[in-house]
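Suppose a classmate hands you a notebook page containing two proteins, each written out with its sequence and a corresponding row of structure tokens. How would you begin to make sense of it? This section walks through that situation. The first entry is reproduced here exactly as it would appear on such a page.
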Amino acid sequence: MREAELHALYLLKNQQSELLRLWNLTLSAATATADAASFPSPPSLAPNSTSSPNSTTSRKVDRPNAPIPASTMDEFRSALIRQIKLNKQIQGALLSSHRLGNLSSEALDENGGFDVSGPGAGVCRKVDRPAERRTIEWKPKKDRFLFAICLTGQMSNHLICLEKHMFFAALLDRILVLPSSKVDYQYDRVLDINHINECFGRKVVISFEEFAETKKNKMRINRFICYIASPPCFLDEEHTKRLKNLGLSLGKIEAAWPEDAKLKTQKKRVVGDIMPKFSSNDEVIAIGDMFYADVEDEWVMQPGGPLAHKCKTVIQPSRLIYLTAQRFVQTFLGSNFIALHFRRHGFLKFCNVKKESCFFPIPQAAECILQTVEKADAPVIYLSTDAAESETNILQSLVVLNDKQVPLVKRPGHNSAEKWDALLYRNRLGGDSQVEAMLDKTICALSTVFIGSSGSTFTEDIIRLRRGWESASHCDEYLCQGELPNYIAENE
């Protein structure tokens, strides 16, 4: 009995500390609102700051003149739920030495029916899809084509490029021709191409091979109208040569806005700018790489995309990849898990040249992850990362909540004894790096809560899928969102 009472006192002390923290949080929120006009914004620790590079203070990026954010209320609700759970633990501890036969403490608790279990208990609830989207119809002419060219970066960048090409194809009433695998990725290994056409109820996208068959090997891009002015269409000599090796003859290459060649950043464009420049009666046109194109961004990037269709999302993983992701979740993760995209390789230099670095020391990252774990009440984390084992081992050792380690689950290598990935290997897709990358995205998109890496297009593609599939939650965020790294190395 004495041991149970001492344990109850320990739990009560924890509850007292948490309630005081919660009280201080409400006071600081009220003060921030009242004194917003007179509260100066703190300087940010930029990569080239003259501040000491080994400063150990994690700085928040404040917005003092803004209203109290919804995240503050979510934190409030999350803390209350934690207190309800802690209170139930206290009751259980006190009653543990006073049970009557098989009568449990739950039976003696008049509030025992109040359920605070599950993914976030409402704090990390799903984000409602907007009731309406701004869309246009995609009804292409059967004999007019837009030839897709995507060159920048890896697969995630190319998918962004393709999405913008689809928007242009719809505006210009053209069928989109996907690139050949000889000059780009083999998209039909990772994407459901038939699904795209089914979403629109008509043929809107064709493969390069189908295009070649249609043209009877007399293939020509009649005109290049380049969205990017310098270099025109983002084409270099090597890629031009590879296009010609496909049997394509190329028309004149010209920029839609030659004056843009002098600009350091792309100018924002709207539909009214596009139509006069790109409308053409030529049979086949190309507009070049569109990854950097800044065109109707809010319209293009809205959940479900800018085009009218009958699906949740248009560009999505192949059926085999989707089923494999589901089997992995059933095998290793279950219905309630957090997914973390922890980008590290090449990210240190990339982040530190930005005004606000996005590369966090592992102990700081672990603290941020634990905050999300508490809100989501998830028992396991799926880790999608390119980090070295030395980094992930430290991260795992620090992700500890209530003296219990939260497992970081990485996708294991192929093992014939495990059947979750059998579909991929049976269809000769196993071991393909692009297939595995899309599999990682799909698993992350199925999670209860997602933590991404700011500045990563891999993360952005996961966010796109989550919004489209309606799996996005109110707890989704970038790693250590609103913070700066507590240590930033000097630049070279």
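The notebook's second entry, a different protein, reads as follows.
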Amino acid sequence: MCSFTLGGSEFLWAKCIGELLVPVAPFDQKSGREAWTVAFAPNGSYFAWSQGHRIVRLIPWTKCLKNFSTGHCGEATNASSPRHLSCQNSNGNHIIPVAGEPREHTIDCGDIVWGLAFGSSVPEKQSRCVNIEWHRFRFGQDQLLLATGLNNGRIKIWDVYTGKLLLNLMDHTDVVRDLTFAPDGSLMLVSASRDKTLRVWDLKDDGNMVKVLRGHQNWVYCSAFSPDSSILCSVGAGKAVFLWNMDKYTLIRKLEGHHHDVVSCEFSPDGALLATASYDTRVILWDHHKATVLLELGHLFPPPSPIFAGGANDRWVRSVSFCPDGRHIASITDDRLIRFWSIEEKAPQAIASLTNGLCCAFSAEGNVLAAGTRDGSVHFWECPHSIASLQHMCRMALRRVMSTQQVEALAIPTPLRDYLTYKVI
């Protein structure tokens, strides 16, 4: 990484390590090409993205990394330049993988794809519909599924390893904007839609719909589970940030602080923090247990007034993602930049140039960030490297099992309590 100075502050340029490009015809300059979503499998085996025009690509992640490091023809390449991954041989045919290797798939979903999510099964996690003994599908421990949310309101469930369609879920009446699986292996799927609802599906019960969560007055853009699957955050138009109890399917509270539509959200790996991104030029870090703002990451300086932030500006934050290390956050904005933040600072730790960025996600290891763009391509960056302190690792271990209120009840010194509750980040 190289550094530069801007406005008296020194920043690092993040290193681009590769790109997945989509061929563009001259007549193809129109909507429908966007990469609205990118996703990594929880076990790090696959990477998926919507490359536009109904197509989803599934590529083994190790294959991506190998091509980025060696180049298309297997020859050593200049490490300072990004690699372009081609998925065809010299004759234009798809490369046939060696027996036993993960297979690459190109899936035609039948309509524009807005949302993607990987889900994996844990056999001991039973379906919540306990009265039904027979199920069409019995998902094993090695099962890996991909859910796709479509423009026509449908959700299609695919087997990642075979590329076959398993389920077609139909109940939404408008675009399915986002999908998220419960991380506990229960294969509970939540869909967020422009029809102003969230719907909960039980894939272990053959995809039956469990509950409709109502409360949003406008489009729902995104949803995210807490690491223990007990809480769901949903965000949408009209400054909406909702927290739901996923054991009772009831609304816990609304978080107020944004001045514009909220379009992206994600919990920290220990579940103590919630990051939300908004068109108001900010990413807010919340203590969702107490509904308080811990940190605001501004993308416009000086900070805009609420009236300006609530209107059109060139700093709309499109996406936010938490790094698995619990210390870094990435955000994408309309000013053609990706910013890598540390939760310990209010200024970006590193930046990268990206035109028309729409979404981002960290790899399972946290060392690579993938970002999708309006032309259907995906770009990959090496994330800033730093070694987490023992204090931070202990804090994460504790916060995985304790809420803010439980930590505050401990008989410990105030400085330690403030550190554990992220008041002193």
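A careful reader of the second entry would note: Helices lie at 61-70, 306-309, 390-399, 404-408, 414-420.
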